[in-house]
C-alpha cells in the first residue's frame, strides 16, 4: 500500500495499522467531551501556555473541577498512559455524565499510540512533571511493573498472546514500554526529591467509611 495522500508505504506489502472499538451511542450512554488542559498546539504559529510556562499547573489547580476533586490526579494517570503508548494526540477526554464530576476518564481515541517505538516524547508527561502529583495506587503499580518478575513488556506480551490478532504489538514496541516506565519513575523521583513524598504521592488507598461506621463513632 503506497498512495500519495499517505505519508507511509508498505514494506514491501505489510503496513502497521490500528484497530478501533466504539462506545455505545450517546443516547444509550451520555458523556461529555472535555478539552484537555494540556492540549497540544497543532500549528507552527504559536505554543500552548503549558509548553512555555513550567508553572502552568498552578493555573490549572485554580480552575474547577481541577481545584476540588480527583480530576487532576486522573489527568496525570491519563498522561502516564499516553506516554507509555506514545500518544501525543490527547486533545480531549470524555466522561460518562451519569457519574458526575468525580467519574473516571475515558481513554478514548488512542489511534496515534504506538507510532514510533524509538522515540519517547517527554512532553506528554507534562501534567506529571509540572504538577508533581501521582496517586499512590498508580505509583505502586508502576513500581511493580518495573520489577524483573512482573516486567511490563512481559505482562503485555503474555496478555496479547491471547488476542486473535496476536502478536498485536511488535517486540520493539513492547521493549519501549519498559524504557518509558523507567522514565516515568525517574520523573516521580525528581518530584519527590524536590517536594517530598508526602506532597507528591496522593493517598488514594484509604477506603471511605460506611454509614454504619460513622454512626458507631457518633454513638461512642
TrEMBL record:
Keywords tagged on the record: ATP-binding, Disulfide bond, Glycoprotein, Golgi apparatus, Kinase, Manganese, Metal-binding, Nucleotide-binding, Transferase
FAM20 C-terminal domain span: 1-200
GO cellular component, one term: Golgi apparatus
InterPro entries referenced in this protein's UniProt entry, alphabetically: FAM20, FAM20_C
Localization terms from the record: Golgi apparatus
Sequence positions that bind ATP: 20-23, 94, 109
Active-site residues, record numbering mapped to chain: 89
One family name in Pfam for this protein: Fam20C
UniProt binding sites for Mn(2+): 109
GO terms of molecular function: ATP binding; kinase activity; metal ion binding; protein serine/threonine kinase activator activity
Cofactors (names): Mn(2+)
Organism domain of life: Eukaryota
Similarity field: Belongs to the FAM20 family.
Name the record gives this protein: FA20A Pseudokinase
Origin species: Gymnorhina tibicen (Australian magpie)
